[in-house]
Design brief:
The complex is a heterodimer of chains A (210) and B (185).
Chain A (H helix, E strand, L loop, with lengths): L1 H24 L8 H12 L7 E4 L4 E3 L7 E7 L6 H15 L9 E7 L7 H10 L7 E5 L3 H10 L4 E3 L5 E3 L3 E4 L5 E5 L4 H17 L1
Chain B lengths: L1 H14 L1 H9 L1 H26 L1 H7 L4 H14 L2 H9 L1 H23 L4 H24 L10 H27 L7
Helix pairs in contact in B: 1-3, 2-3, 3-7, 3-9, 5-7, 6-7, 8-9
The chains are: A alpha+beta (210), B mainly alpha (185).
Chain lengths: 210, 185
């Protein structure tokens, strides 16, 4: 009888250990993939948008402080992308159309940042923006010519970009919202267009109400 | 003792940074070679501990269930997409992988397996068959990238590896269900 007692205790201890291990490993059953964990962590950390120099589709060069006192809705992409970026940018365009017009350009600017500065020169970006009816002003497409600045931004915002042999990249995709102070406040699922538009509109409305 | 040396050698070989980095660079090798090999290292090292602490294993793993449960929990943990990613990005998770798979999965598996009844053994295999079919379906059908550090194509490869492993286990289970070895003696 005594023998089986130890065995039973061992089973209970193992099961408890299992619960704790899974609880810790999934942030309390909230994140089963690294991507979810990353988003949760970033929303908690709220990093500042680092100071980078952008070059947009009109060939204008400016720093991120250009958007001071405006919300910035950001995606990270590259124009040679044949798969997810199309969907990402098309969805971004839909969000753009869903945001009440009075905010566009005044309170919020849309910005698509390329992480392929080598290929995505202003002409390429200019052609690319046409596919999505981006006006180049309230929705800009830009590259960060300085690789060090680019890498630093990707790291800060947890964008994982894996170059492969054929000039393509694998990357994670999301909508990022940076507030008027340049702080990353929201990361949204790029497949949930209406949800993202609602979130942004609510933030803008509350902001105006203050 | 020879087994112990072999197991320890395998463990050290797997831990050599270039070897570990190479194996982890390919998703399917990471999951279906490196991880099983770490468990095998533990299986080989197990007798060393069993001889040192026979009382401990007898007392706390008397019917083999605690050990096999621990094995299932550790394997289940490493089947989460997130843990694969974090083994690459977080040093602490990588270290936990190299400790948990040999010593918390391999060692208890070896100690437990011979203590289990045939029915329990087949139940464990059935459980993993279902789990592997599930993982295989998840990795082959998921439209999104589940692991940030691996390409979608690697995810598909891993999914098929899971499904094939499951097929192998199904073949084995059918064999034990329908073939009576005594007829062939």
């Amino acid at each position: 009888m005594n023998k089986t007692k130890h065995n039973t205790i061992a089973i209970i201890v193992v099961l408890l250990f299992g619960c704790i291990l899974f609880y810790v490993g999934t942030d309390g059953f909230r994140a089963y993939t690294a991507e979810t964990a990353r988003v949760n962590q970033l929303m908690k950390d709220q990093p500042q948008f680092p100071d980078v120099t952008l070059e947009d589709s009109n060939g204008r060069i400016y720093s991120f402080s250009e958007f001071e006192n405006k919300y910035v809705f950001i995606t990270f992409m590259y124009t040679a992308c044949t798969t997810v970026c199309w969907e990402l940018e098309a969805n971004m365009g839909e969000v753009y159309n869903l945001i009440p017009e009075q905010y566009i350009g005044e309170d919020i600017v849309f910005l698509s940042i390329s992480f392929d500065p080598e290929k995505d020169d202003p002409e390429t970006l200019d052609r690319y923006k046409g596919y999505f009816n981006s006006d180049g002003e309230t929705w800009r497409m830009a590259r960060i010519p300085d690789q060090t600045q680019l890498d630093n931004l990707l790291k800060e915002f947890g964008v994982i970009v894996i170059p492969n042999d054929s000039g393509h990249f694998t990357h994670n995709s999301a909508f990022y919202l940076v507030n008027r102070q340049g702080t990353l406040t929201n990361i949204m699922d790029f497949k949930k267009i209406e949800e993202a538009a609602d979130t942004v509109t609510t933030i803008l409305k509350n902001d105006k109400g203050e | 003792m020879d087994q112990f040396k072999l197991g320890l050698g395998l463990f050290i070989f797997l831990a050599i940074p270039p070897v570990a980095t190479f194996m982890e660079s390919v998703m399917v090798i990471h999951m279906h070679m490196q991880m099983p090999m770490l468990i095998i290292a533990g299986l080989l090292i197990a007798p060393f501990f069993q001889q040192r602490f026979p009382r401990f294993f007898e007392k706390w793993n008397q019917n083999g269930l605690p050990g096999i449960l621990l094995f299932i929990i550790i394997i289940g943990y490493w089947m989460l997409p997130r843990t694969m990613d974090e083994a690459l990005t977080l040093q602490s998770v990588e270290i936990f992988k190299f400790i948990s798979l040999p010593f918390l999965a391999g060692v208890p598996l070896r100690d437990s397996w011979k203590k289990l009844t045939d029915f329990q053994k087949n139940s464990v295999i059935t459980f993993f068959t279902i789990a592997f079919l599930g993982m295989g379906a998840l990795y082959t059908l998921a439209p999104d990238q589940l692991c940030n550090n691996y390409l979608i194509i690697e995810q598909l490869t891993l999914g098929w590896a899971f499904l094939l492993t499951a097929v192998g286990m199904i073949v084995y289970l059918l064999y034990v269900a329908f073939v009576d070895p005594s007829q062939y003696e």
